[in-house]
Amino acid sequence: MELSSLAALIGSDIAALGRLGDDATADAATRIVGALGGPINARLLEVLSQVAAELDTQGQPAHVELRVVGSDARLVLIAETGDDEPPAAAPADGDTDARITLRLPAALKVALEAAATAEGVSVNSYIIRRLSAQPSQSTRPQQYGRRRMSGYGRS
Q1: Rounded to two decimals, what is the model's pTM?
Q2: Do the domain assignments include residue 127?
């Protein structure tokens, strides 16, 4: 489904409601619609994500993934067969509903989407699998030798 077209329909509904009032109300509604484009898209994605999560808890031998490319979002039903690699292990504390906002360079996002598509999984599932594969590896460079200090001191 094209999220931008749904957001435009919601915007036109808000503008139509604004036209029910005087010119100042209609003008205010038009400005509000202009400012709400991004937040409406975000809320639509949130709703679709919650729908996918709800469908995943139905106990079926399949899971639902939300796949987003540009402003196009799709709910995809993935049948679980014994041939695929097992899903990433759940965290020990059982909290699988944690969310983060991640800002990354566009080139890295494209690379992640391509890798996830090649594996036939969502970007979210791909990232979880990659992070769960080697949890003990640190990304900090190793430091050898003494720590260096600078500045003024008194002995």
Answers
A1: 0.45
A2: yes
